[in-house]
Amino acid sequence: MKKILILLFVSLFVLSFSVEKEIPYEKFQELTFDNVNYILNSKTDDIDNDGVNENIMIIGELTTDNSPFVRNIKLVISNRKETFILYKNAIEDGYETKIELADFNGNSKKDILIKNYTGGSGGYINVKLLSFNGTYLEELFSSEKEYYNLEGNFESDFNAKIKLEDYFEYKLNLDHKKETYIEGEFYSEEGEVLTDSSELMIGGISQFEHMKWADKNVIRYTKSVSGFYHADRLGYLELILDFTEGEMKINQAYFNIILY
Questions:
Q1: According to the model, what pLDDT value does residue 32 have?
Q2: Domain membership of residue 249 as a residue range
């Protein structure tokens, strides 16, 4: 059945969180590349603006000869002195690990965006966004952390509510799912919730991609929201994130309702 999306827009607001300064790394002189340290992706660019290109590599351990799943993923940056900077556990284990370079925080230096797929049925991704100044790494964003509290609940009369702390909330009319919910004994014919738990299922990150907006780099971030089970997808929360004065802020928020 064809999926129909309805876009709800929430007026401009600001929700910010500070980045973490100077995350751990190690320096070392030698690195061997084999089944233990396998190169997953690499880029060459001057990411610290010193006039010399750095080699940025993602390496990891293959689990078997036939599986694309990679664990113990590390970030390696080689500088002009032929030494290396190693960031262990750069991102969670996953599939198809890639890196992208772009200036997210407005300091005229390219940051390092690392992404891979979790491999679950939800189609979620792991994300790590890092900045490198030639001396240390700075974590700008990580999918391993919760920067805000998103929650949702079913309500009577085939409605649901999604709330992001004290900043906004969405009211969803679920009449298009009425027959399915009654047949599944999730709702009574009178519109009362029949299950022990009325909480919505808040999924992981579905998209985290950079884009140009008003001549600056911003992040398009989406997170899935499901109903009584994972396949009962209600829609996607979409946020536009950008950096201002060392903080990542939410400037716009949308909710894409799936009607099917």
A1: 53
A2: 4-17+147-259
Q: What is the DSSP letter of 234?
A: E
Same domain, 30 and 10: no
Which pLDDT belongs to residue 115?
97
Question: Model pTM?
Answer: 0.83
Q: Would you say 100 and 74 are in contact if contact means Cβ atoms under 8 Å apart?
A: no
Name the strand (E) or helix (H) holding 183: helix 178-183
Q: Look up residue 113 and give its amino acid.
A: L
Residues forming beta bridges with residue 208, ordered by sequence position: 221
* 140 domain residue, yes or no: no
Query: Reduced to 3 states, what is the DSSP secondary structure of residue 177?
Result: helix
Render 16-69 in DSSP notation, one character per residue: EEEPEEEE--EEES----SSSSEEEEEEEE-SSSSSSPEEEEEEEEESSSS---
Q: Is 12 left (phi over 0), alpha (psi -120 to 50) or beta?
A: beta
Q: In this predicted model, what pLDDT tens digit does every residue of 54-74 receive, in sequence order?
A: 999 998 888 777 788 999 898
